[in-house]
Specification:
The structure holds two protein chains of two kinds. Chain A contains twelve helices and nine strands. By secondary structure, chain A is of the alpha/beta class. Chain A has a domain of about 160 residues: Rossmann fold (3-Layer(aba) Sandwich). Chain A is globular and about 65 Å long. Chain B folds into two domains: about 210 residues, Bacterial phosphonate metabolism protein PhnH (Rossmann fold), CATH 3.40.50.11310; about 45 residues, no CATH class. In chain B, the strands form four sheets. A seven-stranded mixed sheet of chain B has the order 1-9-8-5-4-2-3. In chain B, strands 7-6-10 form a three-stranded antiparallel sheet, with no helix packed on it. A two-stranded antiparallel ribbon of chain B has the order 11-12. The longest helix of chain B is centred in the N-terminal third of the chain and has 16 residues. Chain B starts with a helix and ends with a strand. In chain B, about 45% of the residues are buried. Classes of the chains: A alpha/beta, B alpha/beta.
Chain lengths: ~280, ~300
């Protein structure tokens, strides 16, 4: 290698954000494919998420973004593909874990907020109880500690503590999402998955929930994957974005880059689509 | 030579109502239940001449265990003389030739609903509990296949969650009967429907306990000297019913589980729930010599 080539390479390296260079990705998914009968849900999808980063996934309905997120939460197993998390004590393809290992991993290291609170919450238990369930799975057996830690988690997700023993059915949509968020972050997971967390909320509440998420991300440097079809949400939250269509990734890059200068025809259409 | 010379004289093929193959199936399941304490074993649950839900599960276990030299005591809500208890006891005695008894000390098999006797059971006695709902996870997981997976994973966090909710809502644990308990450090069982008062009696007990649900077709067992630990938070101790200070109106005995008898003037009197224990105390007060065994509770506190 000539000196000139080395200079060019060094210059190229300096242009990349330094974190991407020094830390290995927290989440690595390689060549995920999944078919439901005749329908191809995912076709050879790969993704990487670096520690402390927020990855946004956008795409139209049916593009496979939620399926991909479900696989990150190990709720669904693909036909083929490899999934690794760079965490101590974890090695090999996570899709090969048995049910018990999968459950423990999901409880301790992965938090998820669903679009539909009914999927993530026990509607007839109190909100604090919903958060406490996570802690109980992790083996906490002291009532006072459960109470204190549930309170802390609800406080961190900016839930009004006066209502911490109300059942989620009695709460508004935004509050339910906050309970889900508190449940997800109660054990300080390595990875937080958000599946359309603000869809179905009105704009002002949406802004408040995004605010909370943003603050959490700043304070705790949680690694997040956020799925949304709302480009505004992705623009506010994400560092990097992945555009999906018909089960495969069409474009991937930094948020500004993708939104300012979309290369793929579908992304251009998406970015410029307005009502 | 006639046929009667060649054959044996007629005798009953089996006794104790169930036929030999039914008993064999029960025995296998009972042995299996003892081998894995607290784990629910499915069984065929034959028809017996009482209705489902009236003690058919307990009856089948008793009929399998019984032999003509046994003596049988049947308890219903602590009493031996209720219609249900009396009918079951008479039926068992009639089909097996076993002796009927009301005395806990004399009985070799005790079939019970709702109560464990106050007098300590010995290692030569077997307790058979009739259980309406054998699945502790049913209130928290209506899907039985999912519940079975939770048992397999020893995932009982939802049960703790119900206790958490009760403390949050009412300031104390409200679970009166069917208090979930961890058996041998592995399986959670519901010792339904005995009160909290009776759950510690199963812990490291000398006797063998069978719990059988005829309608649900499940049986499980607590072998002798097995740990039975009610689920509790580390900072909220297990509390039994507050009956230690109550005095029995009929026998004057104090410090045992009582039934509340409402009075016309709005107050209430109490009497011993274990009625035969009360009868013995009355007879002793009247000057008879009655053998009263060692009890689990002494002056209202539990002693192992």
């Amino acid at each position: 290698m000539t000196l000139q080539e080395l200079h060019i390479r060094a210059a190229a390296l300096q242009q990349l954000p330094p974190q991407l260079m020094t830390t290995p990705p927290l989440l690595t998914m390689t060549a995920i494919s999944k078919r439901y009968g005749d329908v191809t849900a995912l076709q050879d999808v790969s993704a990487k998420v670096y520690p402390g980063e927020v990855l946004g996934i956008v795409g139209e309905s049916g593009s496979g973004k939620s399926t991909l997120l479900r696989m990150m939460n190990l709720e669904d197993i693909p036909d083929e593909g490899d999934y690794r998390l760079d965490l101590p004590g974890l090695g090999g393809n996570l899709f090969h874990l048995d049910r018990l290992e999968r459950r423990m991993l999901c409880a301790r290291q992965i938090g998820i907020v669903y679009q539909n609170p009914h999927l993530g919450l026990l509607m007839n238990h109190s909100s604090s109880g919903n958060v406490a369930e996570r802690l109980l799975i992790a083996g906490e057996r002291s009532f006072e500690a459960l109470r204190a830690r549930a309170r802390d988690a609800l406080d961190a997700s900016e839930f009004p503590l006066a209502r911490m023993d109300a059942r989620p059915v009695e709460l508004s949509g935004g509050m339910q999402q906050r309970v889900q968020l508190a449940k997800a972050i109660a054990l300080e997971p390595a990875l937080l998955l958000l599946d359309e967390p603000t869809t179905g909320l009105d704009v002002s509440v949406q802004a408040l929930v995004l605010d909370t998420l943003k603050r959490l991300q700043r304070d705790r440097a949680i690694t997040m994957v956020i799925v949304s079809h709302d480009l505004g949400v992705i623009r506010t939250m994400a560092d990097r974005v992945m555009v999906m269509r018909r089960g495969s990734v069409v474009e991937e890059g930094l948020v500004d880059q993708i939104f300012q200068d979309p290369q793929h025809a579908y992304t251009q259409q998406l970015v410029h689509a307005k009502l | 030579m006639s046929l009667s010379n060649l054959t044996r004289p007629w005798e009953a093929f089996s006794y104790g109502f169930l036929d030999a193959s039914a008993k064999r199936e029960m025995r296998r399941k009972m042995l299996k239940a003892i081998a894995v304490p607290g784990c629910q074993m499915p069984y065929a649950s034959r028809e017996v001449p009482i209705a489902r839900g009236w003690g058919t599960g307990g009856l089948q276990v008793t009929l399998t265990l019984i032999k003509p030299s046994s003596s049988i005591k049947v308890i219903d809500q602590g009493a031996d003389d209720g219609v249900n208890a009396a009918s079951i006891r008479r039926f068992i005695a009639r089909v097996s030739g076993a002796a009927e008894t009301m005395d806990t000390l004399e009985a070799s098999i005790l079939q019970s609903r709702h109560r464990i006797p106050e007098e300590k059971l010995r290692d030569d006695q077997i307790l058979v509990l009739q259980v309406p709902n054998p699945e502790p996870l049913r209130p928290v997981e209506p899907n039985m296949s999912a519940a079975r997976e939770m048992h397999a994973d020893a995932d009982y966090s939802r049960l703790w969650l119900t206790l958490y909710e009760q403390i949050v809502r009412s300031g104390r644990i409200m679970q009166g009967a069917a208090y979930p308990a961890l058996v041998n450090g592995r399986h959670v069982m519901t010792p339904s429907p005995i009160p909290r008062w009776d759950v510690p009696k199963l812990h490291m007990a000398r006797h063998l306990t069978f719990l059988s649900a005829g309608r649900e077709k499940r049986l499980f067992a607590v072998p002798p000297f097995t740990r039975v630990e009610p689920l509790v938070f580390s900072d909220v101790p297990y509390k039994v019913e507050d009956h230690a200070s109550l005095t029995c109106d009929r026998s004057g005995v104090k410090g045992y589980f009582m039934n509340e008898i409402p009075k016309d003037d709005g107050t209430s009197a109490h009497e011993l729930s274990d009625s035969q224990f009360g009868v013995k105390a009355i007879r002793r007060n009247e000057g008879e010599t009655v053998a009263i065994g060692d009890t689990w509770y002494k002056n209202g506190t539990f002693t192992q």
